[in-house]
Design a protein that fits this description.
Keywords: Signal. This is Lipoprotein. It comes from Methylomonas methanica (strain DSM 25384 / MC09). The structure is a single chain. By secondary structure, this protein is an all-alpha fold. It has two helices and no strands.
């Protein structure tokens, strides 16, 4: 009978020990943050990336065209300056020629 009494009184103690040891175990791992992408999501993502690539190419073409226009413009400015200088030189020579005739 004593053994039964000891067993009955020790059961709550054992239950408490089991409960505590169960709580003291490692916590369950957190759910993974990465979600498996569906085919539709992958398609949308790749289309978005393709649009960015196309937009980048468009920008690059604009830069190249703008640089070309600037080079052409600078060439025309240089040619224009040369023409102005030559014209001013001709005008000055003509004025000097006129002055020498008038004397």
């Amino acid at each position: 009978m004593r053994k039964i009494n000891r067993l009955i009184f020790s059961l709550p103690g054992m239950a408490l020990a089991v409960l505590i040891s169960g709580c003291a175990g490692d916590p369950p791992p957190p759910p993974t943050a990465e979600k498996i992408l569906s085919g539709d999501q992958m398609l949308r993502d790749s289309q978005g990336i393709a649009q960015l690539g196309n937009r980048w190419q468009e920008g690059k073409q604009m830069v190249e065209k703008g640089l070309s226009m600037q080079r052409d413009g600078q060439l025309k400015i240089d040619q224009g300056r040369a023409m102005v200088e030559e014209g001013q030189k001709i005008m000055q020579e003509s004025e000097e020629g006129y002055k020498s005739i008038k004397k």
